[in-house]
Amino acid sequence: MEGESGESKSSQRRVGLLYDERMCKHHTPDGVHHPENPNRIRAIWNKLQEAAIPQRCVVLNAKEAEDKYLLSVHTRNHVNLIKNISSNEFDLQRNFIASKFNSIYLNEGSSEAAYLAAGSVIEVAERVAKGELNSAFAIVRPPGHHAEEDEAMGFCLYNNVATAASFLLNERPELGINKILIVDWDVHHGNGTQKMFWKDNRVLFFSVHRHDFGTFYPANDDGFYTMIGEGPGAGYNINVPWENGRCGDADYLAVWDHILLPVAKEFGPDIIIISAGFDAAAGDPLGGCRVTPYGYSIMLKKLMDFAQGKIVLVLEGGYNLESISNSVLACMKVLLEDQPVTGAPEAYPFESTWRVIQAVRCELGAYWSTLADELLTKLTSLKAPPLHTILSSDSEAEDIVSEKLESVGEDVIERLSKLQVENGESELGIAASWRPEFSKIDVWYATFGSNMWKPRFFCYIEGGQVEGMQKLCTGSKDKTLPQPEDILWKTYPHRLFFGRESSLTWGRGGTAFLNPKSSNQDQAHLLLYKITLEQFNDVLFQENGLDIDSPSPFFDLSHLNSVVNENFLTLEGIEKGLYNTVLYLGKERDLPIMTMTCSVSVFNKFKSGELPTVGAAVTYANILKRGLVEGELLSNEEAEAYIHEASTKPLRLPLQKNSQPMIQTKLCCFI
3-state DSSP: the chain helix, strand, coil percent, rounded to 5? Predict the structure, then answer.
């Protein structure tokens, strides 16, 4: 019921708050778990009720959007599809249609929820624009910032924020809203919103997000800092693409102070709409960043100085129920002008953050005079210790592992941070004494992916790159290559498959994995290289995105004994890497044969559909084919058939009688 309760609002800001249980009707068919689920908004609402926030707000009713407003940013075909997808006539086709989109599920409640989400954002935006409310928060789902003109994607059906912005600009000119600042602080790039205002200088679109050189969802170049708009909109599209995860309060506030706030002052918006995703929050299972409720509150507080405080926050992503609830509560306290949330940012941003800030300012300096000056070296020299991880060719896993994510090298960082220098010699130098011993121990490294092509594998030994690779390999400390007689083919009863959406080296498409467990029904071809145990560790480091300058090996002699007895072993310290499990395959010339693949638990996530199985990237598949053909194991046609079967054959076992099929999607991605 719309209204307000408690003491009079005459002496304080009038803050709108919108929540409607009907938006919980959108959920996965058959109750299959999904990170974007109804409990997200329920948890937020419960947290706000516990803090007595709704009693201090104007609680608004949800309203369905009218088609004519949706059509200002979406095509007629798209609107018709979302409008009718929950009707009975689509009961037999709904799951199939959903599978054609990128990370979308649909059910009998999806249409109503999508219309309520879009219409509710229009409602609160109009109330704030009219001055009936000073600000508002729309707790809505499904989210919207990935939805494009003619396509649902990334959990988003309609673009809620873009629909509301277009409504204010084009349908209510009497409200005097001529310039809108859209701030997207969701950890993923707001590709849909960007495209809808690409040529429109009435909207300044600002997005800060993980980009990871184009490998983090949506895994393209749309979110790069060179994407600045076109025509009249040139300069009105600002992207701040993080190069890595673990960015926190200090990184975001540096971007606010040195990019967003100066440009906002020069732009002079009449209203601000925030695509408020909270998946950059500390503890989020998908984002891998570290923003705290304090950080979000300060980011919002700084924006309150513009547009007379006319701000509309619209929920986007965020999948840790505790993090998202606490972050929304912190923002609501800012809107209500409570005492600020206590806390303090990390001392300094990452070095990569300053590098990105400088690049953005350089790119946009011609459009915004406030960005034309270069930042002082004295300022940019204040930076956090560097991450002791590098992003590897086949191991950038943070964007798809659906569990609490931290850097794959966190244990390495912790160990390095504890090193002390004594008598002029560091512990790092002492710890590296493992290398001489390990250089005398020979093993067989069995390869099933791109390393089957010898020139590509030699990059892991000598360093460098080959055609099709977009990133250099660091190489091993010992750059001795295996002799021709120490390279041979073998076939093993393990399932080869392709997973992940993209990789730094090969671009969009899957890369190769083996099921750690064997099966007589499966057959995989592997090329074996005889290398040293030291080199094996250096390949292991590179496959999992770690610096080879480690004080200790991840795979030592005790691990070697264990894996021989247990067949496979998931290594401590790199649990979040996808090539974190050493698989023992037997012996050749009395030397152990081992490969690296995903853990059993990760394989089960691929098998269940929780993680995406995706056909091999074109360049990656060509490298595999060259390895098989030039290695004289298969003909060109046989190699193509082998790769095709691995790419298309389902991982799931045949359904038993009366069992329910799992939802299948073309790709798995995150807002």
Answer: 35, 15, 45
Number of Cβ atoms within 10 Å of the Cβ of 379: 13
Question: Cα(145)–Cα(316) distance, rounded to whole angstroms?
Answer: 7
Question: Percentage of the chain surpassing pLDDT 90?
Answer: 65
Note the Cα 177 to chain centre separation in Å.
33
Q: Is the Cα dihedral 339, 343, 348, 349 positive or negative?
A: negative
Share the mean pLDDT of the chain: 86
Residue 386 is predicted with a pLDDT of 52
Residue 589 sits at φ, ψ, to 5 deg, of 55, 35
The overall longest dimension of the chain from CA atoms, in Å, is 86
Say if residues 574 and 554 touch (Cβ distance below 8 Å).
Answer: yes
Strand pairing category for 237-242 and 135-138: unpaired
Kindly report the backbone phi and psi dihedral angles of residue 15, in degrees, each rounded to the nearest multiple of 5, phi listed first.
-115, 125
Single out the residue of 201, 127, 133 nearest to residue 164, CA to CA: 127
pLDDT, one tens digit per residue, over 537-584 is 999 988 887 778 777 788 888 888 888 888 898 887 676 677 889 999
Catalytic residue IDs:
146
Whole-angstrom distance, CA of residue 77 vs CA of residue 99: 18
Which is nearest to 109 in space by CA: 19, 34, 193, 37?
37
pLDDT category at 489 given cuts 50, 70, 90 is very high
Name every residue whose Cβ is closer than 8 Å to that of residue 352 and which is 6 or more positions away in sequence: 242, 243, 244, 387
CA distances for 610 relative to 27, 448, 577, 607, 613, angstroms: 15, 23, 17, 8, 9
**Per the confidence metrics, is the pTM higher than 0.70?**
no
Closest by alpha carbon to 172, among 132, 144, 206?
132
